[in-house]
Amino acid sequence: MAKILVAGATGTLGRAAVRHLKEQGDSVLGLGRYVPLLRRLPLDETFEGDLTNPESLEGCCDGIDIVLSCAGASMRLDNWWDRRSFAAVDFAGNKNLLAEAQRASVGRFVYVSLHAAESLLRTEYAREHERFVELLRRSGLPFTVIRPTGFFGFFGEILRMAQKGQGVVVGPGTARTNPVHEEDVAAVCAQAVRGTESEVSAGGPDVYTRREIVELAFEVVGKAPRIVRVPSWVFRGLVAPVRLLNARIHALMAFGIAVSGVDVVAPAVGRRDLRTYFLSLAQQEKP
To answer: Alpha carbon 135 to chain centroid distance?
Structure first.
């Protein structure tokens, strides 16, 4: 039985990873800013700490065999109050956690980045993930980088727009991807804590173009597709003012625009399919 620290344990991926680790018999310590949220999870221990505050992390890795970091800045577009940037959390915050892991000489550091990052380094989101990956490579610790394609949860807004009879495609919509369910990536993370691979890419079972994903959403909700194609340069202009209100949300929007024009196809490790996910989501959101 390994003792594993999970950073970002209260997020969607983190919660799923905790369940998978417990199912395989590991002892799990959850690291987070809000202990009441951590206590809702099936954790053996909790540790209250903020990745952006290195002093709060002191001792979090003592006695830990493996660190799994699912931690990063918020990916919610409606979370305007949270201004913590990808540079502050995904890079600097994980850097602070890595320093504590090095001090405690943990056996492995597993980090969740993204697939096809090399094609997206012009975006803050991909760039800050990869800055940390480079730091991890030079750390001297055994490590594994998990590289998922887009999580199913990121595509929920496409379904909600289709329910309203609206569909938008950025650019030509021909870029391909195979989205993956968070539960499937969590299973990959749980396997990686005992693995030896330095990188593991993770995609879902089905490959779609960006336009086909929007069409699938309309099919699931039973409406004729009404899709507007908007050039990426127009979208960039539309979201530019958001930077003045919330730089994190602007960076997230900029990533969404950029990734829409790039092929993001990884080896299929996921079993759950996007159609079933959309059907389940549509059922949940029925009035």
So the answer is: 19
- Please, what sign has the CA dihedral across residues 19, 21, 24, 28? negative
Structural domain containing residue 45: 3-152+180-202
d(CA 117, CA 132): 12
Structural domain includes residue 96: yes
How many domains does the chain divide into? 1
Asked whether residue 99 is domain-assigned, the answer is yes
How many angstroms separate the CA atoms of 47 and 38, rounded? 9
Q: Helix 247-259 and helix 232-239: axis angle, to 10°?
A: 180
For the residues of 235-283, what is the DSSP string, one character each?
Answer: HHHHHTTHHHH-HHHHHHHHHHHHHTTS-B---B-----HHHHHHHHHH
Number of other CB atoms surrounding residue 95 within 10 Å: 16
From CA 135, how far away is CA 132, in angstroms rounded? 5
Domain membership of residue 74 (yes or no) is yes
Tokens standing for residue 175: 């870029």
The pTM score is: 0.94
Q: Which residues of the chain have pLDDT under 70?
A: 286-287
* 37: CATH: 3.40.50.720
Tokens representing 6 are 């999970």
| Alpha helix ranges (H) inside the chain | 12-23, 35-38, 86, 94-104, 124-137, 156-163, 182-192, 210-221, 232-239, 242-245, 247-259, 274-284
The answer to whether residues 249 and 77 touch, using CB atoms and an 8 Å cutoff, is yes
Helix 274-284 to helix 156-163 angle (10° resolution) is 50
* Two tokens, residue 36: 């009441």
30-65 residue pLDDT tens: 999 999 999 999 999 999 999 999 999 999 999 999
Per the domain annotation, does 258 fall within a domain? Answer: no
